[in-house]
Amino acid sequence: FFLNDAAPTEIYTEQIVGSVRCVQETEILHDIFEEFSSALHKFKKILIASVNGYAFGGGFELALACDFIVASESSKFGLPEVTLGIFPGLGGTQKFIKAAGKGNAIRYIVTGDPISATEAKAMNLVSVIIKDENQLKDETLNLSLIHI
Prior knowledge:
This protein is an alpha/beta fold. The protein contains six helices and six strands.
């Protein structure tokens, strides 16, 4: 199957170049996330993650790098990249185990299943659940004022 009458080598070359470009962009993005995560770890003040919606993959790993996670009731967390054979690269598995305990974390690390806000709170991943998403920002800011 060929597109636009291209020769097989042209398609193959384009796929390789596209894959290399994708790998390079992924490596750059990983480096940026790693630097950011490292900076968060070194930060001297208390960090609060405010999550409304999905915190999957790198988003979950960045939330785990914070001291508190405030989440809307509809939020979900997880490391779905493991279902694609990709290992979380920002220390998410270690931070997850440290925060939730091995018994709680291992199931989600192995399966990539999503974690509801309620389950995350029960595992001590989430500090506060806000029922009204419209109040999430205000409640997070109030919490930050208490801890300054």
